[in-house]
Design brief:
Elements: H1 2-30, H2 34-41, E1 56-61, E2 67-75, E3 78-86, H3 90-103, H4 108-112, H5 116-122, H6 132-158
Antiparallel strand pairs: 1-2, 2-3
Helix pairs in contact: 2-3, 3-6, 5-6
């Protein structure tokens, strides 16, 4: 009889825990717009560009220990292609994907003006506890763009 009660107690707790996890996942997803969920489940700019297309790539590790890398193809000062990878959460994927969309066909200086607020607004608003993901995207992107500018400046000074 005691074993049966323990099994019932275990079963009830396991059932409770499963239900709790499901509720947490559902509540988390409710905070996102459907568009954002699509961006982090099927990002259009995820992945490393082929070597011959990469003009610059740069990694940035954020304060939450998540890392984001941007891979940019730049032609005559215009960003032709932007891809990324990250080990962050879904909001990081959505923010990086949106940043990639927003900078393509922009000049480097225009892309450097991209703000976390612009990314957040373009996404229809990230949950408050995930807004730092837009900051992560802009910091990683800015580092890549600044690295490219330094590389070009150094390259030009050697060609004189």
């Amino acid at each position: 009889m005691i074993n049966e009660e323990k099994n019932l107690e275990n079963y009830s707790y396991k059932k409770f825990l499963k239900k709790l996890k499901k509720n947490i996942e559902e509540n988390e997803l409710e905070q996102y717009k459907d568009y954002n969920i699509d961006l982090f489940t099927e990002p259009t700019h995820w992945g490393i560009l082929p070597d011959e297309e990469i003009s610059v790539f740069q990694s940035y590790k954020g304060p939450w220990r998540d890392t984001m890398q941007f891979f940019l193809k730049i032609d005559v000062g215009i960003i032709k292609k932007a891809n990324f990878i990250t080990n962050g959460c879904g909001a990081s994927v959505a923010a990086a994907n949106k940043a990639s969309e927003l900078i393509e066909e922009r000049t480097i200086d225009e892309a450097l003006e991209l703000t976390p607020m612009e990314i957040d607004r373009s996404l229809g608003g990230l949950p408050i506890d995930h807004r730092h993901c837009a900051e992560l995207a802009t910091r990683a992107l800015n580092r890549a763009l600044k690295k490219y500018k330094v590389q070009k400046k150094n390259q030009n000074s050697y060609n004189i």
